[in-house]
From TrEMBL:
SUPFAM superfamilies the record matches: Cupredoxins
Protein name, UniProt field: Laccase
Keyword Oxidoreductase in annotation: yes
Annotated PROSITE patterns: MULTICOPPER_OXIDASE1, MULTICOPPER_OXIDASE2
InterPro entries: Cu-oxidase-like_N, Cu-oxidase_2nd, Cu-oxidase_C, Cu-oxidase_fam, Cu_oxidase_CS, Cu_oxidase_Cu_BS, Cupredoxin
Domain of life: Eukaryota
Keyword Oxidoreductase attributed: yes
UniProt keywords, alphabetically: Copper, Metal-binding, Oxidoreductase
Originating species: Orbilia oligospora
Residues covered by the Plastocyanin-like domain: 146-268, 279-433, 550-672
Amino acid sequence: MSLWKETLFSFWLAICQFLGLNTYTYTSEIFRIDEIKDHLIPSILHSPSLYKNPSSLALEDRSTYTCEGDADFKSKINALRPPENGITCNTPGTRQTWCNITSDNVQDGNPKINNICFDYETPVYTGEQIGLPNGVDRIKKITVEITYGDIWPDGYRKENAMLVNGKYPGELIEAYWGQNIEFTVINKLGVNPGEIRNGTAIHPHGLKLWGNPQNDGVPGITQCPIPPGSSYTYTWDIHQYGTTWYHSHLSLQYPNGIVGPMILHGPKSGNYDIDIGAILLTDWYHENPFSLYSEALKRAQVADSTLINGKGKFDCSSVTEKGRCREGSYWETAFESGKWHLLRFVNTATSETFRVSIDNHNMTIITADFTSVRPSKPVKFIDIAIGQRYEILVYGTYSAGDFWLRSEPLNCSKGGKQIKKENVARGIIRYNRSSGEDPTSKTHLRSADLPKNCQDVEMENIVPVLSRDNHYVEFEEVYNASRKLQVSLVIPKNEARAARLELGKQMPLRNNTSSEPLLDSGERLWQIYGIPMRLDWSNPALDMLNEDSKPTDFPESYTVIEARPDGGDSMNNVVFHISGNAAPGTPGGTMHPIHIHGHDFIILAQGSGKFDEENTSRTLFNPVRRDVATMPPDGYLIISFPVDNNGMWLLHCHLAWHASQGLALMILERTEDFQGLTSTQTQKLRGENCQRWKVYVSTSPTPNPMDDSGI
C-alpha cells in the first residue's frame, strides 16, 4: 500500500474508532483486498456483506455469516497462508492462519490448511497433529516451585503469601497450539506435620484435557494433594489456543497467591501488530484467606485493594505499624500510534467482577475464554467475571499522551461494603515510554449508559467464528429433559447447630476429626445439588471409578451427578438448568460465575428472575460458547455441552468463598470408557503421590482440620 493510502487509512480508521462506528465497508475500488489484508479486522471481518445481522435472518439462512456457511469469507481466509519458511505461524497481516497440519497428514498431496476456520477439536478425534513453528519441540517441559514469601504488591506487606517461583503473579506459561506440556510442581511450602493446607495442586483453567482427567489438578477429585517436600508432573495436551491461567485448586490457596498466566499461541479472528500480553485482574486480601474463612461463613468478605498484574496502591494513611506499608505502583505498558494492540485480560479474583475500560479508546473483542469470536463492534467497556478471559484489540489512536486503564470492581457478590476507591488499582497506557507522570485522562463512560445489574458481555458481541452444527436442536425438547440444579444457601433452622439440611440430607461434619455438625448459628454454606460439597483429599473420587460406577457409589457429600445424553438431542448433549440463589426468606441474591472443567458449553438462555419458557428468548443458532458464564442475581443459566469427555469433572462457582462453602458438584461422564483411565503411567504416579500424602498427614496426632469443601 502506498504511503499516502496508508496514512489516509490510519487517519480514517482512528476517526471511526473515536466515534464508535461499528461497521467499516471497503470496496475493491478503494483498496484491493490484497492491499488491505494486513488490516483484516475492519475489512473482511467487519464487512456487512460477510457478516449479516443474524436477527434479521430466517433460521435456515443464519449459517451464512460463519466459517461453515459463508464461502466468500472462508475463501478469503483460506487464501491467507502462514509464511513459507515456517519460522512463525502467522504475521500481523495473517493472524487468522497457523502452521499447517504436519506433513504426515496431507490432503491431495498438500498439507492441510490450518486457520481460524479450522475446528480445534478435530485433531482430538482424528489423531492429527497441529503444525509447530520451526525449532519448537512438540514437548515443552516446565518446572515451578511453590514457596512461602512476604510480598508488597500494593505497598502493604503481606506475610506468608504462597508464591510460584518466588513471584506473584506466578511464572508465565507460554506454549503453542499443538504442543504437549509437562508441568512439574515442586512443593516447598515447608514440612509442618499435620498442616494439610501445605499440600498443593495446580489446575490449568479451561483446558479440556480430553480423556485425561487425571491431570486436572483438583485434590479430592483427580488426585491427592502434593505433600511438602515432594513433586508431581502434570501432562497437558494443548488442543486449544488463547489466554488463560493456572491456579491451585486446594481450598483457598489461589487467593493467597498461587496463580499465574498462560498464553497458548494460535490463530486470531482479527489482526494485530503488538501483543501486550496477559493482564491479570484481582482483588487482594492482606490477611491470609484461610484466617478469613470463618467470617466468610457469616458474611461476604471485602478485599483490601485490587491489583493489575500484581501491582496497585494501598492508602497507607491508616496503617500505624512501622515498616508495614509503603507506596505501591501501577502497572503500565506502551502503545504505538497507528498500531493495533492485543490485550489479554484474565479475572483471577476471589470475589470481584471487574469493569475494564481505557480512557478515550474503544475495544474490539476477538476471544471469549477459549472461543474465537467474530470481531465485535467497538465497545467502551467489558465486564469480566471471575475465571473469564477476553482478548481484545485496541487501536493506537494518539501520537502522544498517557491514559488510564480502569478496572472497577462491581461488588456483584452483594457484600454491602465495597473496596475503598483509593485502593482500586489502575493501569497506565503510555504513548511515550519515557513519560513518568500519572495520566490526567477522564473516563469516557457515562453512568446512564452502564448496565444496572452485574451481567456478562452481550451475546451479540461474542458470536463464535466457528459454530457447532450439533446444537441445532428443538429447545423445548432439550429444556424438558434438562437437569434442574438449584443454587441456594444452607442455613441452620434454629439457634442450635443444625444436624440436618432442609432437603433431608445429612449435614457434613465440622471436620474430619469431629462428630459436630458443620454449621453454627449464623453461619451458612452454598449448595447446588442438595448438599454442600465436602471432599476428602486422601480419597480422590477418580480412585473410586470403574466402568459400572454410579453416583450412589460415592460419598453423599461428594455431590456426584451423572451426565448422560438428554432425550430429544440426537447429538449426545446434556443440558443443565441452573437457577435460584438464596434460601427462602433470605434477602436478594448474588451473581455466580459458573465454571465447568473438561468442557466448554453453549449458553441457551441466561437472565434475571424466573425463567419463562414461553416468553424468554433463547439462543439456538451458533450460541455463545465458553467455560465460565454468570448466573445473574436471583436468575437462571441454561447451558449445554456434549457428553464426549470421559472422567470426573468439577462444576463450581468460581467465587472462591462460595466454592469453599460447597457450591459445586462432580460430573460423572462416560463410565463405559473409564477402563482407560486406570491403566496408565499417570495412574501409577497418582497412587505414589497419594501414598506420600497419607504418610505426611499421619505424621501428627492432631492434624489441622479440613474445614471447607476442599476445592
